[in-house]
Every structure is written in C-alpha cells, then in structure tokens.
Design a protein that fits this description.
The protein has 23 helices and twelve strands. The chain is an alpha/beta fold and 475 residues long. α3 crosses α12, α9 packs parallel to α10 (178-195) and α16 packs across α19 (376-390).
C-alpha cells in the first residue's frame, strides 16, 4: 500500500465511495447517539471500562496464565503465537491433522490481521467468511473498509452485482432488495455450515477465571460456526482477556451501543471448553501476541489495547468519512488504526505505517466517542514524535535543518539579538519596497520562493516588526 496521503488522494476522487460512506456513517452515528443518550451513567460506564482494561493490562501475564489453566481444565488445547506466521501455522496444522480442505469462519479482526485466509489457501484449505459483510468483501475480491461493517463502502446495487458474479447458485433475477440479498447469502452459507467439519473464530472477550470465550454478533452466523463443526479453533489477541465474569456487565452495555447503536446485541455466544455430545468435540485456542507486548511496553500507547473493536471512532472521524478504510492499508482503519498499526508493527518499519499517525485532524471526536476512553489524539501526537525520532540521522530534512537553526539562535541571547537586527534591516527594506514587489506589502509575505514555498503554499509568513522588543525596551 502507498502512504496514507497518496491513498487518501485516490479515495477522495471516488464520489460514489464518499456518498456511501457519508450515508452509512451518518446513519450509525445517529443510532448510537440516541441509545447512548438513554443511559444516564454513560460516562461512569466509560470510566469503568477504561479502569477494568487498565488494571488487566498491568497484570496481563498473570491473567493469561489463569486463562490458560482454566481452558486446559475444560479440555481446550492452548497454543501461544508470537507472530502471524506462528498463529497461521498452528491453524493450518490443525486443519491438516483432521484432513479438512475448508473451514467456516466467524467474523474476526485477529484472523484478518494475521492473513489467515491467505495462509490457509497456501495449504489447500478454503476459508469461508460467514458474516454477510465479510462475504461481500470475499466474493468481491476486496478488502475490508470498516471494523464493524467491512463492506460499508458498497451500496446495494454493487452488492447485487458482486453476488451475481461471485456467488455460486445466485438467482439470475436477483434484485438489490435487502431481504433478497440476505436470503441469497443465507442459502449460500447454510450448505457450508452443514458441511464444514472445522470452524475458526476470534473472541470479543476471554474470561480468565472461568476459561470462557465470548463472541457478540448480529446475524447468528457465529452461533452456527460455534455449534455445528466438530473442531473449533479460536484465535484470540492477548489483550482480550478480562479477569472475571462481572467485568462483562460493563462491556456488554458499552459495546452494542457504541458499535451498532443497539441496546443489546442479538447474539451473545459464550463457550467454556468441550461438552461431550454437545457442540465441537475438539477445541483449540491460539493466544496471539503479534506486536501486542510491544504496544504494552509503550506507556502512552498501551491505552490502545483497551480497544473493544466497536468502531465508534471511525463513525465520527471526518477523515475516515471522506477516505474510507482502504486508504489506511490495514484491517484496522480509522483513528484506532492510525495508532494501533504503528504500535503493533513498530514505527520506522515502513513509510505506509509511519504515515498513519498523521492521518488525523486531531479534532478529538474519536476520544469523545470511545467507550473505553482511549485518548487517540494524545497517542497520535506521541507516535508522530516517535516517527520523527526513528528517521533521525542521514541527510536531514529541510524542516529539521530549520528547527535546528532556530534552536541554535534562540538558545543564546547574543545570537538572538544579532538575528533580530538582521530581521529589522530586512523589514526596513521590505517596508520601503514591499508594496510594489510583494503581495501584501510589509503586512505579510504571502509566498516565498522555493524551498520556502513549501511552507507558504499553505501558511502566511508574518513580516518581522519594525522594531524588536529589545530595541523597544531600551528606547
């Protein structure tokens, strides 16, 4: 992917995309605002969610060991994966051991993060997305554009064409009526649910004390994946752990309202190991790091690990609304993606990742919407400084030279006074000739020649005063 500025420029030229995004995000924003307004103690819930997450992260190693022991006690095989390759190898190995050539999937950001579908395909295993929006993306050979609504950049007419081209057995007379589209997807997926012997899921939460994984969803496809196949593999980011069942009371109020604008989600599935004769008879949990311990070590950035993947920050972001998610080059787009990607991958790794902390106006709307109070603007500014530090050395950028020069001048009173005298002389010349030679006269130098034009193309450069403060004070 190109850096964000280049990708965003391309996205901005797509007027259909901008209309789709404006309509979808506007609808979700309005729904969320209505249901949040019903909760008098909403701010207290936000504070509680942030506190639970922070307290858990401080003792994450202990809670993960507790979770592992509880899962193993209930017949679950636990795997630890340091990175995407290890996680994909574990899942592919389980598929190979059971001789399966296809799996059904619950919508999962973690499996998209590690590129599981592509990794399984290399081993001859087809992964079928069962979430409706994920199915649209998969059949369209597309990329997700939103955390919650991956196909938010598509309208009904586009989805109809995707189904007609890519869905085996799609009705020839399929229209863009939502009920018809959903019916076609249901018929397409039902056969896969009944045939699949292995399923892959993620988890919204992992309760350490009981070894319980929890998935919240809106369509029921997750419930089908979690109950019908013989083998279930769950890929879970290590930050998903919560210590106790009681913690879910807070998050199951925050998440539905912040994500889909609902008071509660239609399907909440919780499973704690293997039960003979009921559901999958073999379960595996892959606990995924993939940069999370790197993020945890960042004292400012670690708050990003509070994220419950609600996408509220995307729906209020003026930048995301105009560019969409593809411009971010990751499965985590929008404001949370602008901080999570550099934290997980590390700054200084590539130009595209380093551009993401600048993909923001710092308006603060994301912080106000975040149900767990992640101060995204604070982390963005922090990461910008880390990007600058990562690129120090070698040939300095002109801006760095200018700042270093300014630091040298401003750190010594005599040097500063000498510079002020030079500016005063220049100002007297401009005062005399500026009205004829420069737009704006002595009041402002509206444009400088290159390379100064890179600055003045978007900013006014105020002219120096006729008399410096020091000279005025002496007089």
């Amino acid at each position: 992917m190109p850096p964000f500025p280049a990708a965003a420029r391309t996205a901005l030229a797509d007027t259909q995309l901008r209309r789709n995004l404006a309509h979808a995000t506007g609808t979700i924003r309005a729904k969320r605002a209505a249901v949040v307004a019903e909760v008098a103690e909403w701010e207290e819930l936000r504070l509680a969610g942030a506190a639970i997450k922070d307290n858990t992260l401080r003792r994450l190693d202990e809670h993960l060991l507790t979770l592992e022991a509880a899962l193993q006690a209930r017949g679950v095989t636990v795997h630890w994966a340091r990175d995407a390759r290890e996680a994909c190898d574990v899942v592919a190995g389980i598929a190979r051991d059971h001789g399966v050539d296809e799996v059904v999937k619950v919508k999962s950001m973690a499996t998209q993060e590690i590129g599981l579908n592509e990794a399984l395909a290399e081993h001859g295993v087809t992964a079928w997305e069962t979430d409706l929006a994920e199915l649209v993306v998969q059949l369209g050979d597309d990329l997700p554009s939103h955390i919650l609504v991956p196909a938010i950049h598509r309208n009904r007419a586009e989805i109809r064409e995707i189904f007609r081209r890519g869905m085996a057995g799609a009705p020839a007379d399929l229209t863009d009526d939502p009920a018809e589209l959903a019916g076609a997807a249901r018929e397409h997926l039902r056969e896969k649910f009944l045939r699949a012997r292995m399923a892959v899921s993620g988890a919204n939460f992992a309760v350490a004390e009981s070894g319980t994984l929890v998935v919240v969803e809106s369509e029921g496809n997750g419930r089908m994946c979690l109950t019908l196949p013989e083998v279930l593999v769950s890929v879970v980011g290590i930050e998903k752990v919560v210590p106790e069942w009681a913690d879910l009371d807070v998050f199951l109020q925050l998440l539905p309202r912040s994500s889909t604008g609902e008071r509660m989600n239609p399907y909440t599935s919780a499973w704690s190991g293997v039960t003979p004769g009921d559901g999958p008879q073999e379960m595996h949990v892959v606990l995924l790091d993939n940069g999370r311990t790197r993020a945890l070590a960042d004292e400012v950035g670690r708050q990003a690990l509070r994220c419950i993947r609600c996408s509220a920050c995307l729906n209020v972001c003026p930048v995301y609304e105009r560019t969409g998610g593809h411009a971010y080059g990751s499965v985590y787009p929008g404001p949370i993606g602008a901080i999570l990607n550099p934290l997980l991958k590390g700054v200084g790794t590539d130009e595209q990742t380093d551009s993401l902390p600048y993909a923001s106006s710092l308006c603060g709307a994301c912080f106000e919407a975040c149900p767990v109070r992640i101060d995204i603007p604070e982390v963005l500014v922090h990461l910008r400084s880390r990007v600058v530090d990562a690129h120090r050395g070698g040939t300095p950028e002109p801006e760095a030279v200018a700042m270093k020069t300014a630091s040298w001048l401003l750190s010594d009173a005599r040097r500063l006074e000498f510079a002020e005298r030079g500016l005063g002389l220049a100002n007297r010349v401009l005062t005399r000739f500026g009205r004829r030679l420069l737009p704006g006269g002595r009041r402002a130098l509206s444009r400088l020649p290159w390379p100064g034009s890179r600055w003045t193309d978007t900013r006014d450069l105020p002219a120096p005063p006729r008399e410096s403060f020091r000279a005025w004070w002496r007089r």
